[in-house]
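Got a spare moment? Tell me how you read both lines of this record:
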Amino acid sequence: MKIEILDEKFDPWQAIVEYKRNQLQNNSKIGASSVFLGTMRDFNDDEEVESMELEHYEGMTEKYLSNIVDAAIKKHKIIDGLVIHRIGVLKPTDPIVVVATWSEHRDNAFNATREIMESLKSDAPFWKKENTNKGFKWVKPSNELTENTNET
């Protein structure tokens, strides 16, 4: 398992390739990989977003992310997990987060990746401040899974 919080741009695809090569290359039990990549949009709540600043609680955030990946490993019987998350000032199209999991079967990898991402999005100690066309504003955490499920 690897948890990393970066304050600079990163190439998520290269990070996944390097992790797989260095940590999982000869693991013949891996039959599935699942990846989620989140990037910054240029809009939110019908407002144009010029940039976003992400803050975190150092030490606490890494521990939280380790706990959710560890729980996913146990619950979904995945072989390994990777989470890389940006902090600092981001611009539209910048990668924000990558979550990758590896397992014997695709269902386990899909479910673990989604669960890790949903928990990260709704509960992890990150704070977002958007620079919009109307000024700066703090963004409330959301749980898109719950919000989308409750739509009529």
